[in-house]
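[09:14] KT: can someone run the structure on this one? pasting the chain below
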Amino acid sequence: MMIPRHQQAVKMAKLAQDRASDQKVKDLAAAIEKTRSPEIETMRAWLKSWGKPQSPSNSTPGVDGASGRSGMMSDRDMKDLAAARGTDFDHKFADMMTAHHNGATTMVKDEWYDGRNPAARKLADAIMKTHVAEIKQLQEVA
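[09:31] RB: done, structure tokens below
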């Protein structure tokens, strides 16, 4: 479920390129896009090697962004973010991405406690460190 979460974060980050007014938001969004895309590919490769589906089914909670793990944005949230510009976008992006990251940290903790694969646990550690640092940056904008 981290794959759709990361995919949504990348979509949100791409919106910042032409909507954000704060350079810090643009820089953070670029960093989010840069780090999440390779992580998505790593997780897809793992799923493929494990013989698991690389995309969750449509019935999986949270895939459509409307329900499931906390922090996923609904379709309406994403439309509102896409419609925002300037400082309004900056604040919405910061608030939404903070909630998104907080949801991811919950998933990371699940991997810490229940995960069995050392590589997946190592990625979970990296995701936690990145997200905690990014939340601090997002709080400066919000």
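[09:33] KT: thanks! Helices lie at 2-19, 23-49, 75-83, 86-114, 118-141.
[09:34] RB: yep, looked fine to me
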